Amino acid sequence: MKPRAQTHRILPIIALLAMASLTACGSGTSSAPPPASQAPTTPTTLRMINNNGHRLAFHVTPGRRPTIVLDAGGGEDSSEWKDIVPKLHAATGSEIITYDRAGMGASDEVPGPWNVQHAVDDLETGLKTLGATSNIILVSHSQAGEIATYFARANPQQLSGAVLVDASLPPLYTNQEISRLVAATKPQLDAAKQNKSSKANRQLIALAESYVPMHRAYHKVTWPTSVPATVIVSEKTPFDGSPTDAQRWRDAATAFAAAGPNRTLITAKGSSHEIPKDRPALILQEIEKLASHT
User: Fold this and answer.
1) Are 166 and 208 in contact (CB under 8 A)?
2) Pairing of β 94-99 and β 54-61
3) Cα separation of 105 and 154, whole Å?
4) Which Gene3D superfamilies match (predicted)?
5) Strands 94-99 and 64-71: what pairing?
6) What is the C-alpha separation between 268 and 236, in angstroms, rounded?
7) 143, 145, 151, 157: CA torsion to nearest 10
8) How many other CB atoms are found less than 10 A from the CB of residue 50?
């Protein structure tokens, strides 16, 4: 697992072009395996799935429905959920699926600008191949909130609900906020372009190339009213060093939660943007609530 500092280095554009200088870099995290007491009772299987000429790594822990799909934040791969998966499986008995988006973890890189519709297609293809096409709870952190929103729009009948974990949500992306984020991260992007041999830098550049038009379009996208959503917003947000942007992030979560029925807003008190690491028990609690009603 990459050092935490590198995660924060590429978080700004991947997770929504937040300024690296505004985001407090965390200390390194241990790559040691979880204690034996947390080991999954059912083995997790790696499935490599082909889609449009590239391979995607899906990790499946068998179980009953609902199927719980965990989608990592920007700059992260499926290992973001490694401590949560065994606990979630033990608590719910559900099938648990995590995966690496294209260019992350064990999945192939895809050349060209990042395209959210392609990311949605990768997820749709993977779940269809695995036979998970109904009674799904989608759990999405940060950038994955964008994939979740488009997935839900296209496949509302497949979802029993979603837990959006400090997710990138449409109300944030006014023209003014997009301009602020692009300007704030220009020095970081320029530096990345000087070293395209780095996989992380290539991913950063790909995301930046499509960022403005993609997020102008995303600002207009709505969540389907038929899909319940629990919105967990961090107290510190990705913009811990910028009160203006932090408030806009929290306001976007509030506006999203208020815009439709069956939506709940929860604040992760004291948490940074990395809620899966800071407040995993809160995420587990909210997933279990949804699972108990399906």
Assistant:
1) no
2) antiparallel
3) 26
4) alpha/beta hydrolase
5) parallel
6) 9
7) 160
8) 12
Rounded-to-integer distance, Cα 121 and Cα 126, Å:
8
Q: Which amino acid is at 276?
A: P
What does pLDDT average to in each consecutive run of 10 residues of the chain (294 residues)?
37 39 30 40 90 98 97 94 96 97 95 96 98 98 97 98 98 97 90 87 90 97 98 96 94 98 97 97 97 88
Per DSSP, helices labelled H in 44-131 are: 84-92, 116-129
Helix (H, G, I), strand (E, B) or coil at 49: strand
Architecture of domain 4-29+42-292: 3-Layer(aba) Sandwich (3.40)
User: Minimal CA–CA distance to 166: which of 196, 143, 193, 136?
Assistant: 143
Tokens of 30: 């241990």
25 with 5: CB under 8 angstroms?
A: yes
Q: Where are the domains of the chain?
A: 4-29+42-292
Residue carrying the six token digits 């993977």: 126
Instruction: Give residue 168's pLDDT.
Output: 97
Length of the chain: 294
For residue 2, the number of C-alpha atoms closer than 13 Å in the C-beta half-sphere is 16
Q: Which residue is it, tokens 């806009």?
A: 248
Positive or negative: CA dihedral 65, 268, 87, 144: positive
Question: Six-digit token pair at 290?
Answer: 């949804």
